[in-house]
Amino acid sequence: MWMVNLRVTSNARRVALILAVVLILGFLLLPGQLQSVFQGVGGPFGWIISWPLRAVAGIHDRIAGVWDSYVALQGFEEENRQLKRELELLKEQNVQLRESAAATERLAALLEFKKQALPTLIAAQVIGRDTGNWYKTIILDKGASDGIQPDQGVITPAGVVGRIVKTTASTAVVLLVTDPNNAIAGLIQRTRDEGIVEGTTNAQARLKYIPLLSSARPGDRVVTSGLVEGFPRGLAIGTITRIDKEEEALFQSAELTPEVDPNRVEEVLVIQSSPVPTEKERLGMPRPKP
Amino acid sequence: MKTLIYGTIIVGIVPVQSVLLPHLTLWGVKPDLGVVAVCLIGLIGGELDGLLVGVAVGWALCLFSAQDVIPGAMLKGGLGFVAGLAGRQMVYLSPLVLTSGLLVVSCLVGLVTPVVLKLNPQQDLWWAVWNVVLPQACLDAIIGGVIYWVMWSQFNIEQLMSESRM
Fold this sequence. Notes:
The complex is a heterodimer. Helices cover about 35% and strands about 25% of the residues of chain A.
């Protein structure tokens, strides 16, 4: 049976009540400021937590490695991995070639077309998944101290993985392309119709706002359009599996199978700088003529 | 001693939740150990402990998630505070009652969360209930019930509670 000592807790109870009221008032009256305070102070706090996180992830990877290599079929596993890598590279090459061909045709007339600079990429390893069930994210072992910032794009050689949404000093959180709260500007490679790629609740993606007159069909590839910060043009997002056209709707939409399976991704590349100028740069003050 | 235990829970919950628990899922949903830990700490340690540990645990978990920090910290803090208040009214709490209580509490927290987070319209309440709230509440209740049962059978809970509230 539990006996509760009421005498000794009256002060603690009062303090708890005051703290609770202060926090609730702060949340209601100054949500933005409180958020930035928590996020700012969270840097060192996150750095401390990242140590056991890396340690556990390291142990987990070693156990998983031993399991995959020795307990499971060793030869097949390695061969399969190599073939998958090869396939991913070939897929990416294929996408790049298609994109290059389309771009060459379209841009041949534009003499001022400048050679696109390759973006700076940072390699990072996946060390964990989202701590909750509401978002589909992965945690990377590189953070703000490595130059990673929110809104930077994350890719693999096969295609787009997601976008950085949060960083601590040594870790970063990536919102996956399959999360319904993520949106990336996309482009159907064959028809050049643009739209917005949004995740779905069944871990797929959907290209929205495709013009009604578009001739998009299942099998068409969708790539990044490069219109928003974070992703240069031409990175593979997914392949259309179904077109949805509702009567009296202003647009059609398409269901996509993402090129990258976010549940199996282990290493990623973070796009640190994009060759596409940002809106600010595009609309900036014109340079004086010499 | 109490500070050390709380510190270990706050620091250790993130690796467990993000690295190990994805392997222990029910229909793709993993338990929220934060809810379990905060409820137990609130019940045993009182409102202040529940509130402070709840805020810290919520904050730590949100730093490694896409979730906003403030709603997460507030929800867990509020949960710890309410658990502390509830613990004060309890004279006897069996593992079965705690398991049922955790099921209800986890469901309530799960129902409030999508409203607070302002998720995408695809993730409506009906979707949330069937795909996240119920499986998570079942897992939370089972894990919380097992942890409490172990504590209940190994330790003198009455003494532990009186000592921890001093």
